[in-house]
Amino acid sequence: MRFTGRPYARVGAVLAHLRARVLYNLAFALVFLLLAVVSAVHFGWTPPCTSG
């Protein structure tokens, strides 16, 4: 699969929102992304084995 240009389009969309000062449009997406990262870290992280 090739994803040419897609990340740049997303970065451009974020920059356009920042430039237009309509950050409230991005709030839901940013909160959703933050929750996804937090859950990935929480469920993907395993504590180290301390038994000796």
Labels describing this entry:
0% strand, single chain, mainly alpha
List the helices and strands and how they pair.
Elements: H1 6-20, H2 24-44
Structural account:
- The protein is mostly helical and 52 residues long.
- It has a domain at 8-43.
- Helix content is 69%, strand content 0%.
- The chain contains two helices and no strands.
- It has helices at residues 6-20, 24-44.
- It is elongated.
- The relative contact order is 0.07.
- The model has no long low-confidence stretch (mean pLDDT 75).
Query: How many beta-strand elements?
Result: 0
How would you describe the shape?
elongated
* Helix fraction bin: 55-70%
Strand fraction: under 5%
Distance between the termini: 46 Å
Uncertain segments are none
H and E string = HH
State Rg: 17 Å
Largest beta sheet, briefly? none
- Helix count, DSSP H or I runs of 4 or more residues: 2
Overall average pLDDT: 75
- Helix/strand structural class: mainly alpha
In short:
By secondary structure, the protein is mostly helical. 69% of the residues lie in helices and 0% in strands. It has a domain at 8-43.
